[in-house]
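User: Can you predict the 3D structure for this chain?
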Amino acid sequence: MADMKTGGRLPLLFFGMLSLFGGVMAGLARLGWEVPSAAVQAAGVHGPLMITAFFGTVISLERAVAVGRVWGYLAPLAAGAGGISLLAGAPLPVGQWLGSLAALGLIAASVVVLRRQVAAFTVVLTLAAVCWLLGSLLWLSTGDPGAGVAWWLLFLVLTIAGERLELTRFLPTPPLARTLFIVIVGVLLLAAAWAADRVFAAGLIALALWLLRYDIARRNLLSEGLSRFIACCLLSGYAWLAAAGLLGLAGAFTPGDGWRDAALHAIGLGFVFAMVFGHAPIILPAVTRIKIPYHPVLYLPLTLLHLSLGVRVFGGLSDNFKLRHDAALINALVLLVFIGTLVTLVSRNRSRGTR
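Assistant: Here is the predicted structure, written as structure tokens:
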């Protein structure tokens, strides 16, 4: 079957964005902010909405475009539908099963890519999809979203790491460094399987240091325009990944730990969303065929993201609930600022093109 046309992809992306907004508001509800009732009832599934519904939709949509077959879009469709079911208050198993089916779809698409090109990075991307499925199955079997957190985090972390590993092919990366990367991935997978939180944290630190040392972002930092912006996003994200690992060594990944919010959001906001900010001007045009021109104003939401997250993390470490409470709202507003910035850049570019 041929690939899906661009117009058919946009509703899938829209479903993912609904999960993003719903997930963000559900997170605010957990901290006591007044939000719509649908978000309040979804407060307990904030994590699944953000990871399996939103990021699951976006990542599987990107993979479907790479595969170029209509069946590949069943994964983002299932992920987006799962998020909508969670927000609509449908029976919990509906969202759980849809998320699991979406993960299976991503695995199938990843295997297609793997068969086309057997390489370390395609193996890692496939393992990342498997991590998504394992986390979803644990949630399905236990009813506790926390049971799948380590696997869901690996889904995001390994997806990003695998994509960055691909680009090291253009650099004189020593064979030992590539071997070390595989060892780090193996440690992370074993730590998640054994629920060894501190080993998991050490693995995150090792991965962050590897990326800081060998990623092409270090070289691009000396470039200009979009390349430099992406490099700033990546390197700042790696710093947050290392910070999360350091917190994890202190026990922050243990359920109920007072620093858990700081550690999880150092990964989810500091690392993952920094990657989103950096890659959006490249990935969105590939999926939607809508060009996003570069402008230095993109540094504004990136800076606000890191500053507000820094306040939130400090509030968590100092047991200052008000700081966490207020910074969480700013975190949410920063995402709106970023989306608004992209929309403005696209609108300006189109208006100039019609003159």
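Residues 201 and 245 are 4 Å apart (CA to CA). The chain has 14 helices and no strands.
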